[in-house]
Amino acid sequence: MAQDFKRYQDSATGVTPVVVHTADSNDTVISIRLANIHASAAIVVAVYVTNGSNYYIIKNAPIPYGSSLELIDGGSKIVLQTGDALTVVSDTASSLDSIVSVVDAVSA
After folding, report:
1. 108 band by pLDDT with thresholds 50, 70 and 90
2. pLDDT for the residue numbered 91
3. Distance between CA atoms of 90 and 44, rounded to whole angstroms?
4. What long-range pairs does 89-92 form, CB within 8 A, spacing at least 24?
5. Domains in the chain and their CATH numbers?
6. pTM score over 0.90
7. Radius of gyration of the chain from Cα atoms?
């Protein structure tokens, strides 16, 4: 069976958490890239999965001005099950771009 790759993104995320992706099946997150788009300052970010509670993938991570952060590398993956919400937030208004790559509907 062919894999169904999806990309989700959000632009200019700030201090209000934003759900980038909500799983509608067993999904596998294969990449999370966060970019600091602030005009002149470092930012601090968090990424977490909400499933009744918040489960942090990363918390209080600094991203220097003009830089990005790759959260999944070296072949690691994160499995999201139906209803899990992947959320991003920054400590600075309109400062974070995020791109998430997912393999949708991975069979159990």
Report:
1. low
2. 98
3. 6
4. 89/13, 89/14, 89/15, 89/16, 89/17, 89/18, 89/45, 89/46, 90/13, 90/14, 90/15, 90/43, 90/44, 90/45, 91/15, 91/43, 91/44, 91/45, 92/14, 92/15, 92/38, 92/41, 92/43, 92/44
5. 4-104 (2.60.120.340)
6. yes
7. 14
Give 16's DSSP letter.
S
- Residue 106 has what pLDDT? 66
Q: Which residue has the tokens 């200019």?
A: 12
CA–CA separation, 107 and 54 (whole Å):
25
Report d(CA 19, CA 8) in Å as an integer: 10
pLDDT digits (tens, 9 = 90+) for 10-69: 999 999 999 999 999 899 999 999 999 999 999 999 999 999 999 999 999 999 999 999
